[in-house]
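Prompt: Have a read of the protein record below and flag anything odd:
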Amino acid sequence: NASFKQRAGTHHSYSQGRVSVMNYLSTRGDATPRKFCEILLEGLAPDGGLYLPANYPQINDIALQKLRDIHTKHGYADLAFAILSLYIDDIPAADLQAIMSQNLHARSLWHQGHCSLERAGR
């Protein structure tokens, strides 16, 4: 989607409050740092490797407790947003939050419908 690429392209930086920038590298040695939106639909890197974060966010005991509190107080969508924000810094926070909420709402509706069909089939 062209408009998505324009809004989330590498010319913007949406750090979600993070100090560092998240880049991804190929497991086969291509050292060209890539942003999440660049690799999202690629699958494999051009050299056939998988993309992995160049550096992994460190989560200490305090940060882990904050994540637990987010889940307890706000639910799974907000927890997913908090965790993915550590790895995705080139999608605006509001857009990433909306993606999490919409995706989890759609999955919930599918699950409810699926369970209803199972009960009806008994």
